[in-house]
Amino acid sequence: MTYLSLYRRWRPGTFSDVLGQAHVTETLAAAIREDRLSHAYLFSGPRGTGKTSTARILAKALNCEQGPSPSPCGECARCREIADGSSLDVMELDAASHTSVDDVREIRERIPYATAGGGRKVYIIDEAHQLSNPAFNALLKMLEEPPPHVVFVLCTTEPHRLPATVVSRCQRFEFRRLTPQLLSEHVTHVASAEKINVDDAAVALIVRHARGSARDALTLLDQAAGTGDGKVERSTILEILGEAPEDILLDLAEAIAAEDILGVFGRVEEMVADGWDPRQLLVQLLEEFRALFLAHRGVVDDEVDPAHAERRRQIGQRFTSAHLEWVLQALADAQADMRLSTHPRLTLEVALARASNLEVRETQTVVARLERLERLLLHGERPAAQPSAAPPKQAAAPTERRKTTKPAAPPARATPTPPAKPAVNGSLDEQWAAVLEIVRSRSRVTHTHLREGWPVEAGEDKLVVGFTKEFHAAELAKRTDHLDRVNGALEEVFGRKLRIEPQVRADERPPGADAPIVDAQEGDTPVDLVRKGLAAEVVDEVKS
């Protein structure tokens, strides 16, 4: 006997057998019971969710010798003919290979004739979005006013490609992806019935790879059962899919977290040498870093291997949210570039090098600010001047240029000193402006992060500063050089020892707290605007 694949043997035969589409099957069953059938239906949704199977069940329900009935017997001659594809009253047209107008005309010529068995004629057009425009035009009139004994069912995975004139003539049903739990139960049930020994880890991987498609899941199980020597394990599925184990991906993630570019390149070299495809590695890395991003925020991803959940959680805590976002963006860009790349390994390595180097991200931020200033200057615009609470420095004449030295580093504060008199007596906003001015004179990098925040509350020993983005708050909190400069400025301004406490408060930013791009003053030259916008100092002027 010819072997029949698992997904064909387990194709649903009644509405109750269709998995996860109760919103469709119950509506169709009710329409059959109450004789409220439409003349045309559109079944749309992802592959492997039961669209064509439901269309065949509908044809059985309308032509069963015991019906019409929402529960066809499946045993009578008409039901068997429909299941075998030999019924004269049910015609299936694969639009992927029958796209021309002549194929639709054949349907139009057969429509007027009565049914052979006395039921309904059902025309199932699979992959309907692949019909040509002339074919759609020929189909319109039939869809609008077919004979009472004719029912059309159009099935498609891409409903947006169907003309609106066709969609408006059909009752549309949207098929959904099967949930991981439902698909896992189905795979386990089929494996048990077919006497296939499969472990839970292999089932989880099958479900993850199937992505809600019952057909894909059973096809993978069928293939694994033929190569697993009587037992299907997770390693068997990984070998079939050509995927790298999670341990290798997490090793690579650790190297990226440590910004160890040499370690990243070494790991990629090992993986490619072992035969892993760079394109498949990129897809897996995107999935893995998505899971790391969720783990960093305390969310468990059900689609990844639970055996590695603890290690994934630990690695996720070594990243900042900004770093994970940067890695995901670099990998997503690489996936788009790799489609046209003739050297996919190089594309992957460049993406991982970017992901492992946060300085590139900071440089791009500065470049973006410079480009924005340049656009303003080219269009003759000037940023609005912002009042400053701290006394402004005496500006040099526009024509005067002189050499300046780098500001001296703040003195060490290891030995406690008596509190100094506050440098600014005024509101918290005025004191904050003075702190920004001091920090800017000592470090452009520290000032770049600090100017994105705003003062929230000053306590006895700390100043709570709010930030919109976690990147700036994290940078100030984790680097001692930033903390020393800011805390030193706080002591000078407030007259007592204070430490900064950065907090992410994205929804609490007060109006007017946005840091100005440039503190523009009357008479500033373009060079002055660029200097202020980048918090830079003029070291020397080169005259040609």
What does it look like?
It contains 23 helices and 10 strands. The protein is α/β, with parallel strands linked by helices. The strands form 3 sheets. Strands 2-3-4-1-5 form a 5-stranded parallel beta sheet, covered by helices on one side. The chain starts with 5 loop residues before the first helix and ends in an 11-residue tail after the last helix.
Task: Name some characteristics of this structure.
single chain, 544 residues, Rossmann fold, Helicase, Ruva Protein, domain 3, Zinc Finger, Delta Prime, domain 3, 4 domains, five-stranded parallel beta sheet, three-stranded mixed beta sheet, 23 helices, 49% helix
Q: Which overall shape is indicated by the principal axes computed on the Cα atoms?
A: elongated
Unreliable parts:
385-407, 412-422
What number of domains? 4
The CATH class designation of the largest domain is: Alpha Beta
The helicity comes to 40-55%
Brief summary:
With 544 residues, the chain is an alpha/beta fold. The chain contains 23 helices and 10 strands. It is elongated.
List the helices and strands and how they pair.
Layout lengths: L5 H4 L12 H12 L6 E5 L6 H13 L13 H8 L5 E5 L6 H10 L10 E6 L6 H12 L5 E7 L7 H4 L3 E4 L5 H14 L3 E2 L1 H11 L3 H14 L3 E2 L1 H8 L4 H12 L3 H13 L4 H19 L12 H8 L4 H18 L5 H12 L2 H21 L49 H15 L1 H7 L2 E6 L3 E6 L2 H9 L1 H15 L4 E6 L21 H8 L11
Parallel strand pairs: 1-4, 1-5, 2-3, 3-4, 6-7, 9-10
Antiparallel strand pairs: 8-9
